[in-house]
Amino acid sequence: MSQHKKPRIRKLRSMYIWHRYIGLSAAVLVLILATTGLMLNHTEKLQLDSHYVNNDWLLDQYGIHAPNNIRSYPLSDRWLSQWGERLFLGPIDIGESDEKLLGVLFYNDMLVMALKSEIWLLTPAGELIEKLGPNEGIPPAINAIGITKDGQVAVMAAHGIYIADQDLTTWQNTPAAITTWVDSEKLPAALRQRLLKKYRGHGLSLERIILDLHSGRIFGQYGIYVMDTAAVLMLFLATSGSWIWLIRQLRDRQRRRKQ
Fold it and tell me: Is 173 in the same domain as 142?
């Protein structure tokens, strides 16, 4: 074998070795890219946007934590609580409001729930009956709800204490009304943990996880560069594979000519 052929063979072998090891290294990343890409192409069919993740590590990574100030009020055997904008009756999600929850009480077989500028009427099971606001005569800037010694619903508002009639349609300013106000209390530990999982788990969709896995963002600020590296490796594999194939074709031609 001539001396000038040996360096070529060594270079080809070196290229082949690099091609093989880089291919093995990139395989995992390529597998992630291909799998997540296929899933994202069928988001609606797979319903990725309606499935939620409740893994604690992932939720911590995304900074999805419980609100600092959880307001909760006891109702005999149940609790009404507000987590951020979400409202729960026991473990049941009953709606959302960006207004502060101020209290709740039983009245005429209903739950009467007070927010800053609204009164919600709910069934004992938590189903919404009606929302009462300023147009229905609700006093402005409510900051407490309670019950008078005569069993009437009262609210403490910007301009004093207001007492409602039996149908909660008329509110009269009654400064001297003797009222027992509803106070916030701490949620039982077991219910708090249950609601914490429910609250956090509803904040992170499977679609977002797969999208961030596809782009590399799930691995943090350097994750994008990891996926960029995978793309560069694939380019190298395509180039080196084509080069190896071309060299082999040239060698085979030379061999056939000599024969």
Answer: yes
